[in-house]
Amino acid sequence: MKITMLCGNPSAGGRTTTLGMEVARALASLLGAQEPSAPIELAEHTQGLFSWGHEELAAIVREVAESDFIVIATPTYKASFTGLLKSFLDQYGAGSLRNRVVLPVFTGGSAAHSLAPDYTLRPLLAELGASVPGSSLYVMTSELERQSEIVADYIEVNRYVLLGAAHGVSLARQGVEG
């Protein structure tokens, strides 16, 4: 199982990236998969997002699309995900993330936006054909010092859904019709 962590934070290497990577590593441990590679920081690829035919960005788009599980981490901006992440996801056509499993991971300043992952990102991911099993993860920035505990709880609560999704990915790879 290939697990990729994509971060839509306009500032690379921040707390959102750290949280997303912790989720990706915990997922790899649950699935017995290899450790995820380095995070994909969209902040480091902004030029490619707005340039036609940018080869480096095309390679990143392919890498994400070839992943079995994609952890998408983003801070909450204006009760939604970042414009940077939206611009990246616009690189995909409808249905092009079919047979891919996505785990939305949001950080935010207050509980007021805790439904943002499910009301903003989940519908877009559905349009792209991705599966979003279980619950999304929303962590308030004031709680990030407990992120290891929060991530462990998140993985445990979603354990069987994630294991079922991994089984589904395996069947899809084998070409088994459902």
Task: Write up this protein.
- This protein has 178 residues and is an alpha/beta fold.
- 44% of the residues lie in helices and 15% in strands.
- It has seven helices and five strands, in the order βαβααβαβαβαα.
- The chain has helices spanning 15-31, 46-49, 55-65, 83-89, 116-127, 147-157, 159-174; strands spanning 3-7, 40-41, 69-75, 101-108, 137-140.
- The protein has a five-stranded parallel beta sheet with strand order 2-1-3-4-5, sandwiched between helices.
- Helix 1 (15-31) crosses helix 6 (147-157).
- The model has no long low-confidence stretch (mean pLDDT 95).
Topology, please?
Elements: E1 3-7, H1 15-31, E2 40-41, H2 46-49, H3 55-65, E3 69-75, H4 83-89, E4 101-108, H5 116-127, E5 137-140, H6 147-157, H7 159-174
Parallel strand pairs: 1-2, 1-3, 3-4, 4-5
List keywords for this structure.
globular, 5-stranded parallel beta sheet, 178 residues, alpha/beta
Compose a concise summary of this entry.
By secondary structure, the protein is α/β, with parallel strands linked by helices. The chain has helices at residues 15-31, 46-49, 55-65, 83-89, 116-127, 147-157, 159-174; strands at residues 3-7, 40-41, 69-75, 101-108, 137-140.
Report, as a whole number of angstroms, the end-to-end distance. 20 Å
Query: Largest sheet at a glance?
Result: 5 strands, parallel
Give start-end ranges of low-pLDDT stretches.
Answer: none
> What does the average pLDDT come to?
95
| Distinct helical segment count | 7
Number of strands: 5
Form type: globular
The side-by-side strand order for the widest beta sheet comes to 2-1-3-4-5
The amount of helix comes to 40-55%
Topology as H/E string?
A: EHEHHEHEHEHH
Strand content: 5-15%
**What is the C-alpha radius of gyration, as a whole number of Å?**
15 Å
Secondary-structure content class: alpha/beta
